[in-house]
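Box S2. Input/output pair 1.
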Amino acid sequence: MTPHQPTLTPLGPALAEALPRLYGLKADPLLNELIQALSAALVRGDLQLPLEGPAPEGIESAEHWPEGHRQALVRCGWIQRAEQTSAPEEDCPSPVVLNERGLGWRRWLMLLEATMAELEQRARLAVQPPLSLESRQAASERARRRGTLDPRQQEAVEALLSQGLVLLGGGPGTGKTSTVMQMLAAVLEERPAWRIHLAAPTGKAAARLRQAITVAGSSLSRPLRLQLAAIPCTTLHRLLESRGDGFGRNREQPLTLDLLVVDEVSMLDLPLMAALLEALPPAAQLLLVGDPEQLAPVGPGAVLQELQAPARRASLGNAAIELTTAYRNDGALALAAERLRRGDGRGFLQGLSQLGDSDNLSWWRCASGRLPTALLKRLQAHQAQLSELASRWTPGQHELALELLACLERCVVLAPTRRGPWGVERLNQQLLGADWSRGPGGWPPGTPVLCQRNLPEQGLANGDVGVVVKAEGERRLLFWGSQEPGDDSGEGMAGSRLVHPSRMAAAEAAFAITIHKSQGSQYQEVLVLMPEGESRWDRRLLYTALTRARQEAVLITPEGQGWLPV
């Protein structure tokens, strides 16, 4: 399990006080602890507390874990002894559920089961009107020849021509994007009038998806290439018409689509997936694409990881396809990522010790009390590049705006923590000096800016990265994207948009960002800070960080093995 900053929030104590009173229960310290631990787990994104292993966060009476806390639930009537057969009161059922996987809130586990049931049902449904077996096989054969697809990729093409849901997984370099492109081309050949939409959880991930599909489609015939280029691509929040307190698209106002493609599904939490399914017409197809070995989403309920459970995979049948053949050789970086993916910690560490100067992965070991000088020099050089480009930019210089935004992707520092000697806040503060506390309205031009919330009225999503510029003597924030018809949230231009700093509800400097916030993005060079944790890091954390690099990565660790993930 990944160590986190303390996640106990006012929600835990409030629930610990309110729930026993609502159920008319006597005070019980162990029950109080359990409620707070369940609340902390939800904030971390975990729907259940496993009853095996060490006491989780929020449990102070570790000597009573888990049996004493289980008995507290029995005493209050929230779970039953084995010999009890009477059902709980239907008018006030227990707020928690105990099953073979642990303990969780009833409401969230019911939402999880309902969501999984709908995904499984969509996987069993045939697309209407159905294509004949001969038509499907002919279309998948054309796609195979066109894209030199392997058998699993060809299976994915045929699945999308027949099934209501397809789950396509695979690691970096396994051909997910080229497979999706051939899948879409096959659909457009057979169903040219279909309404298709591409989406991703963040703006940056959506932009990358659009670009990748366009590049991959360059080998298609001109009619297919034009059809593919015309498919809209947005964030999921924009597609669902996020309104802050809900979504404009729902069961009463469904999406008008025949096929929805969602990339970076590892970032989808349970509430967003549930909202998506509610808004998607029953007859519409859903193609989910992602790497199941990446980090779980920040929000509660890791949908893609849940779908990897053997029983879930079996229920999806032929709709679940995993690509395993690597078509891109990224040298030592790819080999290290693959060892992490397999959970081969010993092989990963051995590979690091054998790295050479010509490898695209470097390993720096240094004292953990302060930031490495070489790291600061590399970032200061990147800061100077951004500053120089920003100083030359003026409104209307579209090409320079795109060059400046592209420069953001040349280098980034990723770390698992926000605070501490190797936390992202310390690094950003050191680079900005006295300007750090002034916020984006006072930061120097060229400073990267991370959007920390979904801001649909600005066309921005949580995790989008922009840069500070000057327009007519005032600070503005330049982001990827273009203003859409009827959108008056920002000053739009082709390929980019300007946002006033006052319209950013939350923003942080982004020379360094957390690994969680980097999901859906890629950079030419990634420098990864891996400090020692209170307990061992989850291997998905480092795997996600290293696979953000397109060309090279630097892994920076303390001496010893206290940083090594499991």
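Box S3. Input/output pair 2.
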Amino acid sequence: MCLVKECSDSEGFYFPVVLYRADEGESISQNELLLLSKEKFEKDKFPSTYAFALVEHRQYDSLRLRMFLQGEVKGIDIHHTEPCVRLVNMRSRLSEEKTFFYISKVCSLSTIFREFVAMRSIGSLNFRDVILRGADSTANTTTLAWEIPGKLMESIESNHNESQLEAIRAGLSRKSFVLIQGPPGTGKTQTILGLLNAILHSVPARMHVKDKMRDMKRGPELPMGEKCHHWRLASPWMTKVNPRDEIMPVDGDDGFFPTSGNELKPEVVNSSRKYRVRVLVCAPSNSALDEIVLRVLNTGVRDENNRAYNPKIVRIGLKAHHSVQAVSMDYLVEQKLAGLEGHLDRQKQGGAGSDRDSIRASILDEAVIVFSTLSFSGSTIFSKLNRGFDIVIIDEAAQAVEPATLVPLSTGCKQVFLVGDPVQLPATVISPVAEKLGYGMSLFKRFQRAGYPVLMLKTQYRMHPEIRNFPSREFYDDALEDGADVEEQTKRGWHDYRCFRPFCFFDVQDGTESQPAGNGSWVNVDEVEFALLMYQKLVAKYPELKSSSRVAIISPYRLQVKLFRQRFREIFGIDSEKVVDINTVDGFQGREKDVAIFSCVRASKDRGIGFVADFRRMNVGITRARSCILVVGSASTLKRDKHWSNLVEAAEKNNSLFKISKPYASFFSDESLKSMEVEVEPPDFDEEMLPYVSLYNDADNSVQAVDDYEDGGFGDAGGDD
């Protein structure tokens, strides 16, 4: 419940200031959308008089709200409104003194606001024409504007394949945008780490090098007024206090924050280094972001002399994984405050150093690499930076809507790397209206459609070649190739059975789909039964697979995943997460397992296959496996889609399509499995060795045969043979 303290109006909006008790429920923050009602909210009854309100400002127990009460907006045309009785009633209630309302929090609009501000800022960006047209006059240049020191370049070349090196070299050019497509298992994160090494330690090609002046292009000299303006931007302490000076060292604290573990060591920067860039690394989700942070913490960065060190990094945002806690902003702020506590106790008045915002700003200013989700890079903390970022790297860029991708670009960067894969999962867009109007299109995909050059990583190190074969042909123009020893490294014992070869399709012919009432999701009980029988047989024959790190059961539908987990508990008596990873396709993006069982669910005579037809989900689902992907579905239903039809045909040509009918247990009987054993061709050997082969096959004589061999008396062959 809240009490209206006062209310003003302007240009059709109403601005009530309300008082509420913060301790009566969850807290309310700025930019949150509220529902106000004069009636108390009840479970099964919707209020008759209500209106939406936006929290513009919060101070203690007081909220300043913004409300539009002139009429009801119809559809998406904000200029077309219709009179509404309930809004008239709300206006009259707001005009009364000491009016009470009931509040219900709907959601936060912070992300939407940040995306809107980012779109509005395009006009001020240096590369606005590239964003608007999807074309760059310098896109095809091969001139390197930056150079990497020799020792570091040797290290980069030895740790990256040719397509990865091509992407890193593109980063040293003058291109405003560099698009890097990373198909499954091609070392996308490894490439990002290589980019960080190159970016942080490269120097402009035209600079002082070893006391020699290289050819330097200079622009026209600026007027004194503009020079002063740039000097002020570059040296903020000339006009105000440097945030670093506000943090006072206490008890040996040197003012630096930890970069790994609890070490309080400053980053070692070579004094001869002439230039230092700052990098902002973003991703659409916290999990994708933390994966990169963890890799940087574990491997460090290599300097000009190819020595590993830990650069100063900070991870900003919510829900940081515990493995990267040491560099999360909240943790670093708490450490700073703990260090300053004694100093502040000695002062009657807390100085600026006690201000958390001031400490955050100083930490941010000192960091060489800042990690943030796309949305959080638009938060107010970034607006207080003394210096922006030179480079922005966006991972999983094809999984983010375009307005979200624009948010970190407003920091004034000079170059942007978009790293992702448009033929894997897209951004999740709930609203069908927004999807229809193109909101789901990523900046990466739009650039690619406009003909902007895309560098594709082509060597994959994850999948057995038989798994790689179909997605490479279907989605990547047959451009993917296998890394050295991939086939040998992904070869497993279960490949001895034709039904457990690297790529198999099981056509469950009598399976049926169903959609429980009141639920938009689908289930297929028959596929669940068959898939769990298959899992049971696999782990019975190969106990090493009894680990959630080895096997995954994947389905596009949330309800099918729920049914899998429920039936698993009923059949095996334990929770599935202890021994097998069961999740949706969306939940498996960026992950991999030894064996993956993919349940397609859709099975009908006349209906379509819904969003299973999304080839991007199909691509993600079948490329999660390292050694074995087992697809379970209805071939006749799935073949209505072009891509699924191609997959079924590929399985037929590979002799790995199995028609399954009830009872399913008979398919996995000992006799059936015996008939599906793969015949292994015997190795080539000399006919003269035949007598000794038969000797080895005799169990009673085998030990003696070995003894004879070691004594050098093995027939005429002698010990050397």
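Caption for Box S3: Residues 33 and 54 are 5 Å apart (CA to CA). The mean pLDDT is 83.
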